[in-house]
Design brief:
Elements: H1 3-19, H2 21-41, E1 50-55, E2 71-76, H3 81-89, E3 95-98, E4 103-106, H4 111-122, E5 129-132, H5 140-171, H6 173-178, H7 184-213, H8 222-244, H9 250-267, H10 279-285, H11 289-303, H12 307-331
Parallel strand pairs: 1-2, 1-3, 4-5
Antiparallel strand pairs: 3-4
Helix pairs in contact: 1-7, 2-5, 2-7, 5-7, 5-8, 5-9, 5-11, 7-8, 8-11, 8-12, 11-12
Length: about 325
Amino acid sequence: MKWQRFFSVLKARDREFIRDRSALAWNILFPLLIILGFAYAFTGDKMDQYKIGVVAQSADASLEFYASDYMQFIEIAESDRASAINKVQRHQLDMLLDAQQKRYWVNDSSSSGYMLEKVLAGSGGSAYLKQSVKDEQIRYVDWLIPGVLGMNMMFSALFGVGYVVVRYRKNGVLKRLRATPLSALEFLSAQVISRLWLIMAVTTAVYIGCDLLIGFAMYGSYLNLFLVYALGAFAMISMGLIVAAQVKSEEMAGGLLNMLSWPMMFLSGVWFSLEGLHPWVQKLALIFPLTHITQAARGIMLDGAGLTEILPNLLVLLLMSIVFLLLGVLMFRWE
């Protein structure tokens, strides 16, 4: 590998992206508009169906509360009580109920929790004692921001590499590059590094800008958060290389990239909690890099998780990056 050729391609790709001001502006404005919209349009509730955790074997059949409509009751093991309380704090559960101890937990900043309190009191549960979640309340926008940043990285990585390389192939750029001493490894490495630092620069700028406007909960290490997003972006870019390896049509590339990105966006817990969904849906979500990015980032920002706690997510992202990158390099064709 000749570093001079690598840096020449890297410089050319960077200039191409920076000079495309519309694409650069969209990468910054898109997540910014989403975050600001959710921050000011919602007060804490995000779904029509309420999710209520019930400590195992504590349901009171005589309580009319359990017969209310639009409520989903999720059984919680006694050993998982502390974890369930954290989920109430993070808006993954709207309420946690313990009928044996006549207690319930709600997030005071959640409109869903407020409504459920009123329903519980009016349906035979007036004797239950309220237990507010500990520590500072987590707003929905605090819960949302890690996933939105990851989602923006996903689109930028997949389309910024997969679509662009296919366009190069269609326009004959790759054919001309093949006549030079440039190797496939040098070309693809330049594409990956160029997109990686651009994604991290844009993500950092968006985070800082939104934090100044709104202010986010951040209990963990910024260095760990940067590591998660950097590794996640690398995994996404490597995934985009697989699409770009042999596809010749931009239309085909766009279809494949949408087929990857849209299910990932809705099944990775970006917009709503996967808590209470069918177990196979929760297992399916684990095959997506965005799921592990969102889980690790939320753990750092909302729970102050360290590297030990998020290590499983990091290992999965690293493994995905290696596999995707190897497949992309092995499958790559100049024409």
